[in-house]
Every structure is written in C-alpha cells, then in structure tokens.
Amino acid sequence: METWKRSVGEAALRCGLIDDAEWLNKLDEPMPVWAVLKLLLELKEQLEPTYQSYD
Q1: What's the sign of the alpha-carbon dihedral 16, 6, 39, 22?
Q2: Residue 55: pLDDT band by 50, 70, 90 thresholds?
Q3: What's the Cα-to-Cα distance from 41 to each of 13, 28, 51, rounded to whole Å?
Q4: What pLDDT score does 17 carry?
Q5: CB neighbours (10 Å) of residue 23?
Q6: How far apart are CA 14 and CA 11, in angstroms?
C-alpha cells in the first residue's frame, strides 16, 4: 500500500472520522454506500453540532 494512503487513513483515525483501526488494512477496498454516508453524517455532525448555544 502506498504511504500516502496509509497517512490519509491514519489521519482519519486520529481525528475520529473512522473509529476502528481495522479500516487501515482495507484502504484499497471499495466501501459500501452506507459506510460512506455514515462517515459524511459524522463529519457533518462535527462541523454543525445539533445543540443550540445559549448565547
């Protein structure tokens, strides 16, 4: 596996986009649509939390 792919996977693991280190062994495998959508929803939640500020 190319080093840059491993670096991308490790960065995703560190920042919480993926939560299982086993994904690092599967970086060249296709992902099901549900898995891609789950990651995008988690990213959206991190960027736009659903809670309201009291300010």
Answers
A1: negative
A2: low
A3: 16, 22, 15
A4: 77
A5: 17
A6: 5
Instruction: Give CA–CA dist 55/37, Å, rounded.
Output: 32
Kindly report the pTM of this predicted structure.
Answer: 0.60
- 11-27 per-position pLDDT tens digit: 989 988 788 999 999 99
What are the residue ranges spanned by the domains of the chain? 3-47
Cβ-proximal residues to 2 (8 Å cutoff; 6+ apart), any chain: none
User: What sign does the dihedral 36-37-38-42 (CA atoms) show?
Assistant: positive
CA dihedral over 17, 20, 25, 30, signed as positive or negative: negative
What is the tens place of the pLDDT at every residue in 29-48? Answer: 998 999 889 888 988 888 88
